[in-house]
Amino acid sequence: MVFYFTGTGNSMYAARHVSDAPVSIPQVMRGRERQFSDETIGIVCPVYAGEPPKLVKQFLRESSFQTDYFYFILTYGFDQTDAPEYTARLAAEAGIYADYIASILMVDNYLPVFDMAEQMGMDKHVEEQLSAAVQAVSRRERGIPEATEEGRKLHAQVAAMNREQPAFNDGSQITVLEGCIGCGVFQSACPVGNFYLEGGKAKRKQTTCEFCLACAQNCPQKAIGLSMADKNPKARYRNPHISLQEIIDANRNS
Fold this sequence. Notes:
Layout: E1 2-4, H1 10-18, E2 23-24, H2 25-29, E3 35-37, E4 40-46, H3 54-62, E5 64-66, E6 69-76, H4 83-93, E7 100-105, H5 116-120, H6 126-138, H7 149-164, E8 174-176, H8 185-189, E9 195-198, E10 201-204, H9 214-218, E11 224-226, H10 244-251
């Protein structure tokens, strides 16, 4: 049994390497079933500023897992910081013992800092990393990577910055541009239902954003931008192995 959270397809793609039928966490959280039992249970999710998405944290707190082997596969784009250690502690607080955690370096989709055209041109050896993680899980390897002091410090620094300047990571800088045609993709692709249509244009709420950037990255018109910083407004990213419809099916709210 494998659960995943995805905004631009990276974690969905990774999850499919360990399961033919991974389960979307946003879809689970819209239902009532929170008790799961299987020989192995895995969670595949991105790392945002050194931590799993808020919805994944909620999923861990509100769910019951019975398994002989629990693992995480974390996808990240620049620096994993101390994300494996942090995630293991987070799971332990929810009564879950993490047997194994892997981190997979992929495209970094954080638009304020990274140019998606440049990111897509980099060879980050994703397939080799995923193959190693799949083999480790199949052998039921155990182990949590120990973070460096630099990684712990970077996580702490980013967390402090986000507290002091929330707009860097709370979604308040997400802006609907003039090019919006009200197609509704933003509404269906958002994993937390943060958008709605009004007067034929996209509107967003201010309180539920994961800042996963599924809205901006998947907008066919590139009509979702960032007011504070957008490294390359003309370049957007979705994992090349994942279709827009698959993102919508994973995250839609209805």
